[in-house]
Each structure stands twice: as structure tokens, then as C-alpha cells.
Amino acid sequence: MTRILLADDHELIRGGIRMILQSQADFEVVGEAADGDRAVDLARSLRPDLVLMDVQMPGLDGLEATRRVVAAGDCAVLVLTTFNRDDYLFQALQAGASGFLLKNASPEDLIGAVRVVARGDALLAPELTRRLFDQFTSRPAASQRPDLLDHLTEREAQILRLVAGGASNAEIAAGLHVGEATVKTHVSRVLGKLGLRDRVQAVVYAYETGVVVPGDNTP
Q: What is the pTM of this model?
């Protein structure tokens, strides 16, 4: 059973999302919050598997609420917003969100996104990676190489660059002519060595540290 907390300041929207989620036998909505402060409190007390977090709410907004929930290790966060804005996307991922979804998504997409995040993966679509890339095109390259990168093998560094480029495990496996299970093992090792939680954090890390430089397509 996946236990879900809804955080949105519009009761009608919460009601619609609740109906969609509770149509699934393995989903349970365990609480609802109309503002960020309440979302943080309920995440701490209810210990859901994930929070569906709106961005714009009265008082504490969804971005800061996400940061606090993730920092406390209470659960994963899937940001759900009406606003298709790059600054919201990037700030949400920097805050530690495991996914970003627009409210015009279909019920099937919402259900699928919840399943992805609930099992500990990140919702990282190729178009999301493109938008992350665009965030960094005007930024200078990192001036120093983090020491943690020295702990990666040549193959692991290559895997990190491919993940940062938005490639799926299946695409990486096909390109490197190895099994998908081998790729999963490499990805897990990269995340572990760099202290990252998921693929979304890996993409942000790769661009922030200069592992991937905008305009460089070298794998």
C-alpha cells in the first residue's frame, strides 16, 4: 500500500486528485494539507510514502516545504503544479523533489508518476532533462572538480554523463552493449559514491560540477 499526503490550497483540486488516487487499490490518501506548514507537520506525523506537493500555497510555499520534508527524511516529494515554469522546475529539484508534474497531466500519468516516485525512482523525462540543460547554458563551467568524482571509475563517469544526458537504463545498455542489469548496478554505485538519492539529483550534480558542459555531446 502506498500512503500519500496531498498538499494543495484548493479543496476542489485535492478532492479530484484524491478520487483519482483512491481508484487504485494499492493507494491510500492518509492526509491533506492546505498550506506548506501543515504539509511539513503532517509529513512528520503521518510518515506517508510520498507527498504530492503544490508550489503556490499560502504561508510556507511548496518549494520550501519540499526542502524541509526531504531534509528531514520523512518521505519523497512529487511536485504537482499548474505553472509550467522553468524556475519552479529547477528549484523543486534543487529542493530534493523526486519528480515534477503539471496539473494538466492525465489521470494515467499522475498514477504512473506516483508509482515511479513511491518505488524510490525519479520522474525524469527527456524533456525535463532538456529544460535542466537550458538552465545551465548561461552559467560558467565549474572551476573545480569535486573530490568525490575521483572515486568514480572511467565507466562510472561515463554512466553519469549518459544519465545527465537523459538516457534511460535501456538506452545506455544498448549504446554500451551491456546488459540493463549491469547499467543499473553502475548507476547505483555512482549514486552511492556521490551521496545522491536518485537520477534527478545526478543530473543536477553533473551540470553543477561541470561533469557535463552545455554544448558538449561527448558521452
A: 0.70
